[in-house]
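hey so i finally got around to running the thing on that chain from the lab meeting. sorry it took forever, my laptop kept dying and i had to restart like 3 times. anyway pasting the input first so we r on the same page abt which one it is
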Amino acid sequence: MIITLTNIDSSIISEISYNQETNKLIVEYLKETKYEYSDVTESAFFDIMNADSKGKHINLIKNDYEYEKISDTKAEEVQ
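ok and heres what got predicted. didnt touch it at all, straight out
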């Protein structure tokens, strides 16, 4: 199952998608860049969603996961 959240109350994030089968998290920033984070647990995803500041929370945990900048095409393949 893929969970996608849009209209996020954030000054830096426009969309977050999480694939529960692959544990991939895709974050689209307002500057239209997308990053894919690997091996993100479901609990870590829900921690992000429940954080007062989603951008700050991602910045705190992003070094805990492998990540790469991706294109729109790659993001569609992951989902």
